[in-house]
Every structure is written in structure tokens, then in C-alpha cells.
């Protein structure tokens, strides 16, 4: 055979590999591969994999460096790492490997977790305990674990005799109406300011943000006078749920956060919908709202809980005790109600906010709903 390569012939890999030591085929082939592997230096795991590959390679040949690097990185990832690998924390990785530092930090984490549980869940658990504890036990030994048994009659008396059931339903209707009005105003207002963007949107956006600097107490008198003699209606809205629902919609904070969320949505989707012939209403209902589940969940939680605990405004416009919510009615019945029964009523009033947060916590704490809007 001649020294030159004939057409269709390939050079055997061992012709060049014999010129360099076999050890050079072990580990990452270049600095670029090292960076791609997360900056992990050559370790005992990599050396072991390289030795195994060399042992299994054909005589006079060497393993493919890229295959060696991939296998070495896979083996390196199997080693035990500290909780701070790849992240920057207040304790370095070297300090974390020290036994004394690791023990002290884990102890601190446990103490912080216990403190958070006691501060956050402790009052709710104590209220739940008081709700089924006899009044004498609450007064004498409040922290004892049911020294004279459980009294479930507190809950039934609070629900039936004190008529908490009626005030509970009043609160639900008020909260649902306020939630609907706030969500309607926030989503439509944010849609106009962020997606449609008319020429006057910047002026309106500035005015909306400016209202955040106005204290709510300053608006009580003019708002009450407006509800007392509303324009165009000719009849007072006092003792009407609309007196609570309509003012609740004027929430500049909700409009601002919804508009900022809409700003983060990919505008390519809006342009594609317009090209397909979608009008403003179709764009809002079929494109924007399905992509806005996280912010809808956040606004829903804010609106519902704010309405559930509101006291001053419902007390001013809902003077009839039969339509007052729990936040207004519970302080009124405290003086003439048994302590155990009253605490049971308080416990009942906290059920809905707790359940609401547990239901919406996934949307509240995550950004689900954006993935899949744009491919690639």
C-alpha cells in the first residue's frame, strides 16, 4: 500500500493515538468541556472511569475523549455534595463540610422552623382548642389540654343560637360580590393599559398610580355621601350589598399589579391573535385570561380576604344587623355571649380564609400558566 490515503479510506484512530500518552484521553478534552460539566475538576471518580475505559479499549487504541468526558461527568454527579453546591449562600461549601458548622446550621434551621410554626400556626391551633373547651377551663387553665373534656356544644350554640350561620352567609355574599367587581375592574383595566395601550394610557396609568398615595380614610366622607345619594339612581344604597361591592372595585393596587403582569406576557402571541382576526374582546377572553391564572389567583386571595376582614366601611353602610357580616357583628355580640361560644364563633369565621389560601397557594407562590404560551 502507498503512504497516501486512497479515496473512501479512513485513517484508523490508533495511527495518531500512538503519538501521545494514553492518559491524555482521560477526563475532559478541553477547558470548554470542563466548563460545560459545571466547572468540576478531575476527581477520583473521573480517574476511575478513565482507567476502566482504557482497560476496555482495543489494543493500541484509545477511547473517544467526548465519551470519556460524558461518562466522567455522570459519575462525578453521583458523589455526595453539600446543600450549597452550585449556589451561593451565607455559608461556603468548604465551611459546610466541617462537622461543627454543619451541625450548628442544621440546629439553627430546626429552631427557625419551630419558631415559624409556633408564630404562624400556634394562634390558630390555640383558637381551635378554645372553640371546643369549656369556658371555666379557658379562664382557669387556658394552656391545659382539655382538663375536663371537650365541649362540642360551643360550636353548635355559636352556629344556631348566636345565628353565626346567618352572618356567615352575609359575609360570603359580600366577599363574593367584592371579589367579582375587583377582578372585573382589575383585569379589564390592566388589559386596556397594558395590551391595548391607547394614546392616553400613560396618563391614566399615572392617575391610577397617584391614587395609591391617597389615604383611604380621606375618602370615607365623600364616598359615604356618594352612596347616600348616588348619581343617576335617585335612591340610597344604604343597607344594600351594592354599597360594599361597587366601592371595592376601585382598587388601584389590583389594576397596577395586573397591568404589570400583562406587561410580562409575550406580545408575539397578541400579534398572532390579531393577525388571525381576533378582536379586543376575543383577545381578552381567549388569549390573555387563560395566560393569567397566577395573577388571577393572587388578586382573588387579596380581594376575598380584604373583604372578609373589612370592618369600618360595612359598619357605616350596612346598619341593619340582619345583613351585617361577621367582622361587624361579632364585636357587637361579644358582651352578651358566653366566652367559649364566642371563641367558637371566631374559629368559624377563620375557616374560609384558611381554606382559601390552601386552595390558591400553588397559584399564589408559583408562576404556572406562562409555559407553553410560546414555543421555543
Automatic annotation (TrEMBL):
Subcellular location: Cell membrane
Gene3D superfamilies found in the cross-reference section: MetI-like (1.10.3720.10)
A Pfam family hit: BPD_transp_1
Domain ABC transmembrane type-1: 168-360
Keyword Transmembrane helix: yes
Keywords in alphabetical order: Cell membrane, Membrane, Sugar transport, Transmembrane, Transmembrane helix, Transport
Positions of transmembrane segments: 107-132, 172-196, 203-225, 237-262, 283-308, 339-360
Gene Ontology CC annotation, any one: plasma membrane
Cited InterPro entries: MetI-like, MetI-like_sf
Ranges for region Disordered: 1-67
Membrane topology qualifier: Multi-pass membrane protein
Gene Ontology biological process: transmembrane transport
Top-level lineage group: Bacteria
UniProt entry tagged with the keyword Transmembrane: yes
SUPFAM superfamilies linked: MetI-like
PANTHER family: ABC TRANSPORTER PERMEASE PROTEIN MG189-RELATED, ABC TRANSPORTER PERMEASE PROTEIN MG189-RELATED-RELATED
Family label: Belongs to the binding-protein-dependent transport system permease family.
Name of this protein: Multiple sugar transport system permease protein
Amino acid at each position: 500500500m502507498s503512504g497516501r490515503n486512497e479515496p473512501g479510506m479512513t485513517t484508523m484512530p490508533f495511527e495518531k493515538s500512538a503519538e501521545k500518552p494514553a492518559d491524555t484521553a482521560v477526563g475532559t478534552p478541553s477547558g470548554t468541556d470542563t466548563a460545560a460539566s459545571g466547572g468540576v475538576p478531575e476527581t477520583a471518580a473521573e480517574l476511575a472511569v478513565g482507567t476502566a475505559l482504557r482497560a476496555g479499549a482495543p489494543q493500541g487504541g484509545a477511547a473517544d475523549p467526548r465519551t470519556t468526558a460524558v461518562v466522567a461527568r455522570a459519575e462525578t454527579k453521583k458523589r455526595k455534595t453539600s446543600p450549597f453546591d452550585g449556589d451561593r449562600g451565607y455559608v461556603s461549601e468548604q465551611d459546610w463540610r466541617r462537622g461543627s458548622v454543619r451541625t450548628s446550621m442544621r440546629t439553627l434551621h430546626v429552631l427557625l422552623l419551630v419558631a415559624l410554626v409556633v408564630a404562624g400556626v400556634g394562634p390558630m391551633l390555640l383558637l381551635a382548642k378554645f372553640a371546643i373547651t369549656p369556658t371555666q377551663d379557658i379562664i382557669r387553665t387556658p394552656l391545659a389540654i382539655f382538663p375536663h373534656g371537650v365541649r362540642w356544644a360551643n360550636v353548635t350554640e355559636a352556629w344556631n343560637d348566636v345565628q353565626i350561620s346567618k352572618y356567615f352567609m352575609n359575609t360570603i355574599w359580600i366577599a363574593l360580590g367584592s371579589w367579582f367587581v375587583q377582578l372585573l375592574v382589575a383585569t379589564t383595566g390592566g388589559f386596556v393599559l397594558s395590551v391595548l395601550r391607547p394614546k392616553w394610557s400613560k396618563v391614566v396609568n399615572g392617575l391610577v398610580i397617584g391614587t395609591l398615595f391617597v389615604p383611604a380614610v380621606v375618602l370615607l366622607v365623600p364616598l359615604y355621601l356618594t352612596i347616600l345619594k348616588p348619581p343617576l339612581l335617585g335612591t340610597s344604597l344604604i343597607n344594600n350589598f351594592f354599597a360594599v361591592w361597587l366601592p371595592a372595585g376601585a382598587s388601584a393596587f389590583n389594576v397596577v399589579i395586573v397591568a404589570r403582569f400583562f406587561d410580562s406576557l409575550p406580545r408575539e402571541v397578541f400579534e398572532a391573535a390579531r393577525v388571525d382576526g381576533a378582536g379586543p374582546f376575543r383577545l381578552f377572553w381567549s388569549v390573555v385570561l387563560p395566560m393569567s391564572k397566577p395573577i388571577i389567583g393572587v388578586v382573588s386571595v387579596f380581594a376575598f380576604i380584604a373583604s372578609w376582614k373589612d370592618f369600618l366601611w360595612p359598619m357605616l353602610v350596612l346598619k341593619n344587623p340582619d345583613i351585617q357580616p361577621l367582622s361587624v357583628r361579632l364585636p357587637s355580640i361579644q358582651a352578651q355571649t358566653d366566652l367559649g361560644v364566642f371563641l367558637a364563633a371566631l374559629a368559624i369565621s377563620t375557616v374560609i380564609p384558611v381554606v382559601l389560601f390552601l386552595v390558591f397557594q400553588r397559584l399564589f407562590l408559583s408562576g404556572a400558566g406562562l409555559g407553553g404560551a410560546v414555543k421555543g
